Structures are given as structure tokens and as C-alpha cells.
Amino acid sequence: MLSAAAQLHRSGKNFANAVQPGCGEHVRVEVIERMSKTFEHLPKRWIVERTFGWLNRFRRLSKDYEVYSQVSEAMIYGSLIRLIVRRLTA
């Protein structure tokens, strides 16, 4: 039986091997091994989670309705522009 660290390393390698053919060299997979069992604050993660929370308020972005990724990207840009404009005019 493999140790937890060895299993994590192996699953990270499997994930990296699965992602590379689809994304190419543009994506870097990084497996982080946790040193402690307690909660650790990860820098900048809250910004990403907050932005995803804002985007989920928009109905078209709550599910993956779009066929083309360019349309999804345009919807994200439109939603973020709407958020910024509403904050500037408030």
C-alpha cells in the first residue's frame, strides 16, 4: 500500500498527464503537499472564489449552456463589465 504522499504525487501526475494533451504548454499543473492538517490561508484564492460567486449570480453563467467557448468567454466579459459599471455609477 502506498503512503498518502505517494498517492497524492501519483494522482497529481495522472491529472497532469490528462490535462497536457488538451491544454498543451499553456497550463502548468502544480500539486501542493500540505504540511499540516489545520486550516491555512492561501493567498489570492479568496479573490478567485469571490469572482466566481459574483459570476454565478448571472443566469447564463450558472450552468454551461453555451456550445462555443468564445461565447462563454464573451458572457463572462459582459458580466464583469456590468459589475464594474454598476459600481462606478453607484
Provide a short characterization of the protein structure:
With 90 residues, this protein is mainly α. The protein has helices at residues 4-23, 45-55, 59-62, 69-89.
Give your account of this protein's structure.
The protein is mainly alpha-helical. The chain contains 4 helices and no strands. It has helices at residues 4-23, 45-55, 59-62, 69-89. The longest helix is centred in the C-terminal third of the chain and has 21 residues, at 69-89. The termini are far apart.
Secondary structure category: mainly alpha
* SS field, number of helical segments: 4
The H-and-E topology, N to C, reads as HHHH
Show unreliable segments.
none
How many DSSP-defined strands?
0
**How is the main sheet built?**
none
Compute the gyration radius: what is it?
18 Å
Query: What percent of residues are in strands?
Result: under 5%
Shape: flat
Distance between the termini: 59 Å
Helix content: 55-70%
In round numbers, the mean pLDDT is 79
Give the SSE map:
Elements lengths: L3 H20 L21 H11 L3 H4 L6 H21 L1
Keywords:
single chain, 90 residues, mainly alpha, flat
